[in-house]
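re: that chain from earlier
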Amino acid sequence: MKILLLPFLLCILCINAYSQKKKDPSEKESLFRFGFKGGVNLNKIEGKSFKDEFNYNYSLGGFMQINIARKLGLQPEINFVQTTAETSDEVTDIYEDLFVGGNQKKAKLDYLKFAGLLNIDLGPSQRVKLQLGPQWGMLLNQTVDSLKSPQDVFKKGEFSVLGGVLLQLPLIHIGTRYEIGLTDINGIDNQDKWRSQAWQFFVGITL
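^ sequence. v structure.
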């Protein structure tokens, strides 16, 4: 967890400092805006079958902003997100006939994720936004190195919730958010519950 603290704290400090800026009378957001972003996805899968550690991956996506009120807006978005996890030795104890024993192996998941976020302006500036909302992830591809058979291990879909902050400058934006999975993504059985979580740090442009 220590490796997450420095980038998270720096991002929060920058956003907090900007939120104290007095509103410029000429500063007014358009009703509709759209943009693109990319960044780091630090994820892990909770469950006895996986190592309890975050893994570095990436995410790429696009979004639209609908600013419906002075301090309130909606942000639907679509993102391609890569997730990885390392299976623990216990996975072969729980599923003796499915996984190969021995060294810990990787699982790689590629998701297309659809989010619907609520943007709430913080402070006098319209540039700092609290983001909250649900997300649906559609599993595009799954690769598990230690499988004995080609069967699917993970469920094809996942619900999650997001919360974070966004600093939106005139063209460039930066932000961070935390994702908590609500769905048990174990597609084998209910012997071990698997739930995902992730920190995301991103930068992009808003047009």
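The longest strand covers residues 128-144.
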